[in-house]
Amino acid sequence: QVQLVESGGGLVEPGGSLRLSCAASGFTFISRYSLSWYRQAPGKAREFVARVSPAGDITNYGDSVKGRFTISRDNAKNTVYLQMNSLKPEDTAVYYCHLLGTWGQGTQVTVSS
C-alpha cells in the first residue's frame, strides 16, 4: 500500500521561498509512475499544482504557479520535491502529494507578512 508523507511547509513572507518534500513508500515500482502536487485553500476546491514524469524529464504546472514553482524527483530516495519561489499570499494552502490515487496528509504553507 502506497504511503506518502509531505514535509517542509511553514510560514513565509511574500516573495520568499519554501521547498516541500514528499517521501513515498510501500510500493516497489514508485519510479515507474508520475508524481503530482496539489493544493487546497480554505473554502476552495483542490487545485493541480505540478506533475513530474517517472524519469523526471517531463513536468507540467498549473497556470497560477508557472515560472515560480519547480517540481523534481529523486527516484533513489522515492521522493518528490516542490521548490516554491516568489511566493504570494494566494499560494497559502495545504499542499498534498498524489500517487496512484493515494494522497498524503498534507503540509500547510502560509504566505503572510
Brief write-up:
This protein has 113 residues and is mostly beta strands. It has strands spanning 3-7, 10-12, 18-25, 35-40, 47-52, 59-61, 69-74, 79-84, 93-99, 102-103, 107-111. 0% of the residues lie in helices and 50% in strands.
The first-to-last residue Cα distance is 40 Å
Helix content: under 10%
Which range does the strand content fall in?
over 45%
Low-confidence stretches: none
Order of helices and strands: EEEEEEEEEEE
Q: Tell me the number of helical segments per DSSP (H or I, 4 or more residues long).
A: 0
- The Cα radius of gyration reads 13 Å
Task: Tell me about this structure.
The protein is an all-beta fold and 113 residues long. The chain contains no helices and 11 strands. Strands 2, 4, 5, 6, 9, 10 and 11 form a 7-stranded mixed β-sheet that branches. Strands 1-3-8-7 form a 4-stranded antiparallel β-sheet, with no helix packed on it. The mean pLDDT is 96.
